Amino acid sequence: MRLHHIFKRLSRQMSNRRRLLVTSSTYNSPSVRLWLIWITTGSLLLAGSACGDTRQPAPPPTGQQADDWTVVERDPDAQWLPILATQDLAVGVKRVAFSLDGLGPSEEPPTVRVSLFELDVERSVPRSVQFARFIAYDPSVGVAAHGHANASVSDRSRPIGRGVFVVPVNFSSAGLWGLLLEMASDDARETVRLRFSVRARQAAPRVGEPAPAVESRTRADVSTLSELTSDPDPEPGLYAISIAEALNRGRPSIVAFATPAFCHSRTCAPVLDAVKAVWREFSSDVSGVHVEVFENPSEPARLVEAEAFTAWRLPSEPWVFVIDAGGVIRYAFEGAMTEEELRSAVEWVVQDGWD
To answer: Is 162's pLDDT higher than 50?
Structure first.
């Protein structure tokens, strides 16, 4: 079969397929997305490379049903590419965030209806259906040029565009899960699927567990706050005591891990601004601690992760924890978070709403 006939056949087959994407957070980079497309392309070319070969594709393995969730393909005509922004996915209630690559700077975010599927159990009936909430980012927030002293350390938060969509879900078991995203705007409608694995236990400390009482550096350990934080407008009260001291005070605490200047997702600065605002409001009742992700923010060319950040086993940044007077974590926010969400969580803990 001549090569141009193969590509013509390929184009026709792809154009007839439903707009469908099954992806995960690891498909964020353009190179990986192109690799996905070429894997699909290569499969089709191999299927048609023998001239006159009309054999059907091999059926799926015994016991495995082929359906929309088994397709791994990027529709080249799709307007939006969803990127899973939440990385620490484990059994329990989780606030999942995703962004839409391709959402223009002046484009109104689409309405997104999210259906949750436990793919190892039931691939056609959703566990829940709800609408996602969009959290926009401040377009003025940027990322300072920087490097890592340890070459094996990479930036854990990814560039995720204008903002994120968030939705609370309940993962009842470990295994393969999926989100069906039905997106609609005034002039476009698309249906896209995200497929990902859920672990039995998350890496970060969980809600209901004691907060790790580790030492963290304070303003007493340095000559200027710029040695403690990359925040250009730091709140001195968030560096007065260590995490261990806050937990030993016998009152609620807010503990935030964020790197405003070096956060590739651009969420750290607005999240820390929310922490500062809420802590100032509740400072008479709540201890507050900000831990910069890097031990040496004043040396951007050779950043080293802070010991407290490493001790809490955080796989990404930012994270904000609301801890009760007994030292137990009651709320945990990974990634984008609003001031209103944090205020509500702190109010519950301050009012002993968990009794």
So the answer is: yes
Looking at the structure, do residues 103 and 237 belong to the same domain, yes or no? Answer: no
Res 152: pLDDT: 53
**Percent of the chain at pLDDT exceeding 70:** 75
Number of domains making up the chain: 2
Q: So what's the pLDDT on residue 15? A: 38
Question: Could you tell me if residue 214 is inside a domain?
Answer: no
Kindly state whether residues 118 and 228 are assigned to the same domain: no
Q: Convert the chain into a string of H (helix), E (strand) and C (coil).
A: CCHHHHHHHHHHHHHHCCCCCEECHHHCCHHHHHHHHHHHHHHHHHHHCCCCCCCCCCCCCCCCCCCHHHCCCCCCCCCCEEEECCCCCECEEEEEEEEEECCCCCCCCCEEEEEEEECCCCCCCCCEEEECEEEECCCCCCCCCCCECCCCCCCCCCCCCCEEEEEEEEECCCEEEEEEEEEECCCCEEEEEEEEEEECCCCCCCCCCECCCCCCCCHHHCCCHHHCCCCCCCCHHHHCCCHHHHHCCCCCEEEEEECCCCCCCCCHHHHHHHHHHHHHHHCCCCEEEEEECECCCCCHHHECECHHHHHCCCCCCCEEEEECCCCEEEEEEECCCCHHHHHHHHHHHHCCCCC
Asked if residue 315 is part of any domain, the answer here is yes
Question: Is 213 domain-assigned?
Answer: no
Report the pLDDT value the prediction gives residue 149, as an integer from 0 to 100.
73
Q: Is the same domain home to 178 and 230?
A: no
pLDDT single digits (tens) 78-120 = 889 898 888 899 999 999 999 998 888 888 999 999 999 999 9
Say if residue 62 is in the same domain as residue 121: yes
Query: Taking 70 as the threshold, does the pLDDT of residue 7 lie above it?
Result: no
Range of the domain at 86: 3-198
- Same domain assignment for residues 264 and 157: no
The answer to the question of residue 303 being in a domain is yes
- Domain of 279: which CATH number? 3.40.30.10
